[in-house]
Every structure is written in structure tokens, then in C-alpha cells.
Specification:
single chain, 123 residues, mainly alpha
Length: 123
């Protein structure tokens, strides 16, 4: 099954990222809401997409996002609630299965965030 972002093409994730960032910069949400939404958006992204998104951010904001992600993933043992990635959350076994399925994607995203942050610092 194709996810929504795949339907719109490779630039869609970056466009949504920029829109969410503008919304936060305008005071439309708290930082935690912003960072959570960015993490959710970037799950499943490849390194070039993560790098493109983080490259848009000033160094301080980029570092803050990476620190937020590290704490978020650590506090949830890389298995945050997977309900955002499911149609039906009424089946507890399915929720557990989806969490286990998503765990490698969250770990990969954390690695990509760190790599993209390093690349942006070098640029």
C-alpha cells in the first residue's frame, strides 16, 4: 500500500515540512507540536529528503530538532505509539505489531537526522 506522501511525488515532503515550519515560526503551534509533526512527517523519508528539510533550518533550530528527536525516541524506546500510521487502532495486537514494524524506521530516521545535521554543518 502506498502512503499519502508517495502519491504526491518526492518534493511533497519538503513542501509540507516548509509549511509546518512557517506555521510554527508564525506562532501557530508549540515547539513540541512542531517537532513531533516534523518527526512524523520524516518517518520513511530517505537521507536526501531529511537533508533537504534540515538544510532549510538555521543551525540552532536544526540542533534543537535533533535533540528533541533523540529524547523522544529514547523515552519511547524507539517504539512510539504507531496509531498515526494505522487505519484501525482498536486491535491491541495489531497496534503492537505495527509498533514493532515501525521501530526500524524510527531508528533509521534518528540516524538520518544526525547525518543530515552533520552535512548541514559542513555546508
Amino acid at each position: 500500500m502506498m502512503n499519502t506522501l508517495e502519491l504526491f511525488g518526492p518534493d511533497h515532503r519538503l513542501k509540507v515540512f516548509r509549511k509546518v515550519t512557517r506555521f510554527w515560526n508564525a506562532g501557530g503551534c508549540t515547539y513540541d507540536e512542531y517537532a513531533f509533526n516534523v518527526i512524523t512527517l520524516l518517518v520513511g523519508a530517505d537521507l536526501s529528503e531529511v537533508t533537504a528539510c534540515l538544510g532549510d533550518l538555521p543551525s540552532e533550530q536544526r540542533n534543537r530538532l535533533v535533540m528533541f528527536a533523540e529524547a523522544y525516541f529514547r523515552d519511547n524506546d524507539f517504539t512510539p505509539y504507531p496509531g498515526l500510521f494505522m487505519v484501525d487502532t482498536n486491535n491491541p495486537e495489531e497496534v503492537v505489531r505495527k509498533g514493532q514494524e515501525m521501530r526500524p524506521k524510527f531508528r533509521q530516521l534518528m540516524e538520518y537526522l544526525k547525518m543530515a545535521d552533520e552535512r548541514s554543518q559542513m555546508a
